[in-house]
Every structure is written in structure tokens, then in C-alpha cells.
Amino acid sequence: MLSNFKSLGFIKTKILPFAIVSLFGIAFFAVSARIWLPGDMMSPAPVN
What are the tens digits of pLDDT across the range 34-44? Predict the structure, then answer.
């Protein structure tokens, strides 16, 4: 039972912050990837 609490603390202090930071990095890369797209792909989609 005590080892279960220790592993939960390890997940909270080590793995969860790394997962949050890496998720933010992936989202930031996806948003900023428009910089490298060709110019015609950066324009909005045609309406008609």
C-alpha cells in the first residue's frame, strides 16, 4: 500500500509536468507550423 503512494507521487512530480510541457510544445509547434507553409495555403479557404 505504501509503495502505491510512492509511485503516485513519482507520477505527480516527474511524469505529469513533463507530459504537460510536451503537450504544450506539440500544440505550439502545430500552431506555429503555418510559418513554413506555402503562401497559398496560408490564405483562408474560399467560401463559394
Answer: 777 766 666 67
CA atoms of 23 and 29, how far apart (whole Å): 10
Give phi and psi for 43, each to the nearest 5.
-75, 155
Q: Cα(13)–Cα(10) distance, rounded to whole angstroms?
A: 5
- Rounded-to-integer distance, Cα 7 and Cα 21, Å: 20
Write down the pTM of the prediction.
0.56
Contact 24, 16 (CB under 8 A): no
